[in-house]
Amino acid sequence: MIVYESAWGHTRMIAEAIAEGLGAEPPISVEDASPLSGLEVDLLVLGGPTHAFGLSRPSTREDAHRRGGRRLSTGLREWIDEAAVSSLSVALFDTKVHRPNLPGSAAKSAAKKLHRIGCRVVAGPEHFWVEDYGGPLLADEVERAREWGAQLNQLTVA
To answer: Which of 148, 75, 145, 76 has the alpha carbon at shortest distance from 112?
Structure first.
C-alpha cells in the first residue's frame, strides 16, 4: 500500500510511478487513507514533500496553498501521530527542492516517528528532486521512482 501527501502533485506523481514499478494498487492520498494502526499490508510505502526541513505542518501546508498548491486538510505527520502502535514494514520517500546542502527530509522525520511506534523501516529514505517549491520534477525522477518501486518489489517477494 502506498500513502502520500502532495499539494503540488509532484509527490503524487512519484507515488504513482513507485506503484507502477512495485505492481501495487494506485497510491492513496493521506487524506483518504485508513488509520495507520489498523493497516495490515506486506509493505507500506509512505511519501511526502519536505517542508521546513521535515514533515509538513498545518502552517507549512497553508503556506504551500497560498503559493498555489492544493489545500490539504491533513498530512503524514498527523496520520502517523494518530497511531498508537504498528509493527509494519515501511519504505519511505520524499520530494525535496534540489539545492546543494539544503538540510532536512520529510522521509527521515517520518522514519523517526514510525520507529517510535514500532514500525520497521526496510527501505529509504529515498529522495526525489523538484526544481523549486512549485516544481517541476527534475528530468528522469519519475523513471527513477518506477525503478525504485521495482526494487521494493523484491522486499515483498522475500
So the answer is: 76
Query: Which pTM does this prediction carry?
Result: 0.95
The answer to whether the CB of 65 falls within 8 A of the CB of 71 is yes
Residues in the chain: 158
- Distance from C-alpha of 130 to C-alpha of 110, rounded to nearest angstrom: 19
Contact 73, 87 (CB under 8 A): no
pLDDT digits (tens, 9 = 90+) for 47-105: 999 998 999 999 999 999 999 999 999 999 999 999 988 899 999 999 999 887 778 99
